[in-house]
What we know:
The protein is an alpha+beta fold. It has 20 helices and 39 strands. The chain has an eight-stranded mixed sheet.
Amino acid sequence: MYERRMSEIKLIFGYLLLYASITPTHAADTISANQIVRYNETIISPLETFELGFFNPGNSTNHYVGIWYKKISPRTVVWVANRNTPLTDTSGELTLTLQGVLIIRDATTGNIVWSSANSTTLQVRNPIGQLLDTGNFIIYEEGDRINQEDPIWQSFDFITDTLLPGMKQGWNLISRMESRLTSWKSDDDPAFGEFSFRIDNRGYPQVFLMKGQKVWFRVGSWNGLRFTGTPSLTLNRFYNFTFVVDQREIYYQYNLIDTSLITRLVLQPSGSLERFFWIDSKQEWSLFLSRQLDQCDLYALCGSFGNCNMGKSPVCECLKGFEPTSPDQWKNTDWSQGCRHTIPLDCNPGEGFKEYSKLKLPDTQGSWFNQTMTLVECEKMCKSNCSCIAYTNSNISGTGSGCVLWFGDLIDFKTFAENGDTLYIRMSPLELESTENSRSSSAGRRVRVIVPVAFVVLVILVSICLFYRFSRKKQQQQGTTGNNFRHDPKNRSGDEDLELPLFGLSVLHKATNNFSVNNKLGEGGFGPVYKGVLEDGKEIAVKRLAKTSNQGLHEFKNEVILISKLQHRNLVKLLGCCIEGDEVMLIYEHMPNKGLDSFIFDKTQSELLDWPARYHIMIGIAHMNPKISDFGTARTFGGSQIEAKTKKVVGTYGYMAPEYAGSGIFSIKSDVYSFGVLVLEIVSGGKNRGFVHKEHYNSLIGHAWGLHNEGQSMQLVAKCLSESIDESQVLRSIHVGLLCVQRHPEDRPTMTSVILMFGSEGPLPSPKEPGFYVGESSQHPGQCSSNGIHSNNELSITMLNGR
Ligand SMILES: *[C@@H]1O[C@H](CO)[C@@H](O)[C@H](O)[C@H]1NC(C)=O
Ligand SMILES: *[C@@H]1O[C@H](CO)[C@@H](O)[C@H](O)[C@H]1NC(C)=O
Ligand SMILES: *[C@@H]1O[C@H](CO)[C@@H](O)[C@H](O)[C@H]1NC(C)=O
Ligand SMILES: *[C@@H]1O[C@H](CO)[C@@H](O)[C@H](O)[C@H]1NC(C)=O
Ligand SMILES: *[C@@H]1O[C@H](CO)[C@@H](O)[C@H](O)[C@H]1NC(C)=O
Ligand SMILES: *[C@@H]1O[C@H](CO)[C@@H](O)[C@H](O)[C@H]1NC(C)=O
Ligand SMILES: *[C@@H]1O[C@H](CO)[C@@H](O)[C@H](O)[C@H]1NC(C)=O
């Protein structure tokens, strides 16, 4: 009995001994209060991904507590506790105190060399430390899993040189704690090195790579998709990333999409930020990404308002609209003084903003931001404060949102070929005026597509208003006034001096029985036409143009009024316009038996315009042209219906410049080309039939070019114009038209010079060979008798049909 008991005791004791002996190599994932982890002992995460314990790096004889990958060799350390306070021997002990503080004690001296917290006011009853498979070591109150989500302490809050998936690098705004990457001093020494990678939140948050106290490389602000200074950071199938800015925290974080992969982002002692993936088959780390810095990444190299472009030599240049502050120093490649506005700002109310694209956005220290404002609100806000120098969306994702405002000098620009950002910088009114043309060239592709049709639309307006003018004149001659056109008292008061009568929408609703289907006369090129009866019994036809947006309507109205000042003695009775809400309508006199229907329905059985009218129209368009993009034609006529038509028009009718048709490259000079085509069309009428390849619309240009070279340009002119013709004007128009359609965009004149050419009688340069776009269009030149302009374009047919 006794013997048996003794043997049991021995057995138990033996188990205890056995247990004790295997503890170091079979460590748990946790450490409880007062438990000691000694030199040869480690804590291992549940799936044996990470291991925590003492180590000595490289050839160093110092000892540290750290976390490394359990299964990866050579040992790759991702976190170090006592990085600045190493142990010089193996007597270190890692303990979790009863207060929930992790400490490293030098057992020889009894000194505490490192602790996770200096003191704690927390009431902790039963703390426990645990190493997770994420590489995070957490301390929490035992017995409550929720506490693991919000631990008392976690190593992830104290990043060293390595950012692991799920770590948050940045600011906890509640505790005001920042966690940043800091490089090791060397491969042997985990002490704080020279370089750090951190988020600066003095303004819209941005990321800096610091060397000591100096900004080494400004990674920049987050634009919703990436950092403005790292355009190559793109979506990939391995990991995703995010940058969060809210009331509680500001941080950068990345996560693995395929969690079987192993990756780390390390700030090397050299200052190089490198991402590695572990290649299991090769048993090695593979460098996935490292940002090679170039000259333009040197912080603020080009000074204020100086832009750095690696494609240029020297790399620094002032932004457009700016000049070197100190030209001599600048010439000697001392760019430190930067640039200043060529025309200084003086808080003039006419100041506005110029768009700059493909940029690294400037330093956001001292900037202001709001993440919910729209770009329009943003501009308004910036405009209202003269010290606001620039603005842009904080988030370019989707359609763009949020607002960042800059005050004072802007520094650290860089030009990127791809994925650059857009900034709007405050400019004096004079500067804005002088850059109007280049601005329109940078307008969106939508505008590019629509611009050619814009000419046509404008010509319609021209003719409408010409018709109106004529009818007015005729009435005045007949002793009547225009007052009977003014049916809307509201408009009468405000717009008394306008040349164009405006109809109220309500009046038209009433007249057309609320645009009843029964009143619909048919469909014209631009929309349905309704018959209506005004209160005084007058019959009208209302052409309801495509829905428009409110924006640009004011401009639309002004342009219509401007155009209406052009005069013409042909007559179609346009009674007026209606511009209200998103509606734009044209109101004609309805005379069913007088062939007006054909005019309204664009069917064109009518006389054509005489020469003076055409000449005025050309000049009118030339004057309009520089404003087209600005005036928001794209927006005004931007409905999907019109857009669809636009595509057709562009694809079929050939106002396209060859470079645009061929490669989609569009510039302001492509507008000029389109204008040139229109001029030649207007001049030629239908005269060139029989001389041209029927397949190619642009043969008109070739024909004009041929005649010009033979000195026979007058032959281009429509015969039916012969009575009204002014030969020198015609020749000049053809000449200008040919200059506009020259093959090389750089040879074509600007629209401003076109206006000057029309307006003067000086000699003109000789046109070079025109550019042709051989499209798929099959177009027969029109006839003099059927449509004044031979274009097959439904829109332009509308525009020049007199009665
Ligand atoms: C750690 O283990 C190694 C080899 O197993 C041994 O040589 C060394 O003395 C141990 N050190 C301590 C402090 O126990
Ligand atoms: C350790 O020392 C050896 C020999 O001096 C050297 O080749 C190696 O690069 C050193 N390792 C580190 C991490 O410094
Ligand atoms: C502890 O106090 C020292 C000296 O005040 C400070 O430098 C250190 O950052 C503190 N450590 C923690 C974890 O708060
Ligand atoms: C990144 O991927 C992880 C895993 O698929 C997912 O849980 C997380 O929501 C993603 N984050 C972002 C910002 O897309
Ligand atoms: C941001 O702008 C929105 C809209 O103008 C406003 O409602 C909100 O209060 C602003 N937020 C802050 C923090 O200024
Ligand atoms: C303009 O903005 C600056 C910087 O935010 C601010 O200090 C100043 O009060 C603002 N001025 C006005 C008139 O709002
Ligand atoms: C940025 O915009 C996108 C698209 O509208 C939105 O999904 C995302 O939440 C925005 N990000 C921030 C930080 O506001």
